[in-house]
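Progress against Task 2.4 (sequence-to-structure conversion) is shown through the following example record, which the project officer requested during the mid-term review.
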Amino acid sequence: MSPRYAIYYAPAAGDDLWRKASAWLGRDAYTGQVLARPALADLDGLDLDALTADPRDYGFHATLKAPFELADGVSETELLDFAARFAAARAPFEAAIAPAALGRFLAFREQEPSTGIAALHGDCVRAFDPFRAPLGELDLARRRKAPLTPEQDARLVAWGYPYVFEDFRFHMTLTGQVRDEDLRERVLGVLRDHFAEESGPHRFDGVAVFKQADRAAPFDILQRFGFEAALASA
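Structure tokens generated for the chain above:
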């Protein structure tokens, strides 16, 4: 199978949020290294490998343009060149984020709606779409296992992902599904404490191109591109 790419928001490699969240997940998507987990006494007895298995292979990120195979005639180099130009034309912005529940999952979420995040998402969905091959029947069937509205199904076909634009929910996933509500609240309380210093205003200053070599492989950061517009106008 062909490799897949994705346009994600990920903090810079030296960012405290990146460092701590990657350690929580147990893997660094910049380096591919397995990381030692933090010792969190209030979670003693929990299988943290199982709790974080789903997000670990994707790396700590927020989806801007969902995973896609390259369209015919498009190269990885062209994708990276475009991503560099896209990022260079944007300015950094701040938005407040913190651990919160998203259904049965736990993730960093917006503390209040951010026009900057919404604009970045919408622009990525549209701008990178020419690089995306149409979804095959297997991927369409996989996505359609979840209940989709007619509008979401139309967006799935048109944009490769059903939860875009008004259905977009910014999230940087920290756990898989936690079905037990009491356990979910317990883990959330620990995560809020653990990430207290990284919660609140966060500087969004780049986008990253992630790559998955094949469907059995994890996603790793191919290259991150910083926003440069504010620097260029200074």
